[in-house]
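Before the break, one more example. Copy the sequence into your notebook; we will annotate it together after we see the structure.
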Amino acid sequence: MKESKFYKRSGFTMLEMMIIVVIIGIMAGLAVPSFMNWIPKMKLKNDARQNLNLLRQARSKSVSDNSQYGIYFDIANKQIHFFEDNNNPELTCYEPGSDSLVIPPVNLESNVSFGECLFNGDAVVFYPNGSASTSGSITVQDTTSDNFFTISVLASTGRVKME
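Here is what the structure looks like once it is written out:
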């Protein structure tokens, strides 16, 4: 008896394909909860890095423009104000309406807030030589978990780091 051409073809049966689809579905179902926990952590890290970058940008701009620039942490409104300290530079603080904003205020994500702020007047000003008005730190924390980042500034050198 002659064999048919159809029996020698290779491929997947419908049953094998359905088993693969079920396995992929189960694996995706297991990954969704961990992915949902990952999103708030990424928002927190993004906001912490944004704070870090704005502080570094203020220091860099003060050196390049030979002027005083600073960052004010508006804890109540969850905003960051990047300003030029041109009204009363010897005070080294943010004076709304008097100091000019370099960029519009930056808002934090909904699940992120400021924790403890150890800067005098909730602001740090950088001098043209790169140093800062005060040493201190700001904590950026997730309101839904115990996760946080601390950003600190060293006054003598103006060094900004995140932990």
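The mean pLDDT is 84. The CA atoms of residues 13 and 22 lie 15 Å apart. Try to locate both features in your own notes.
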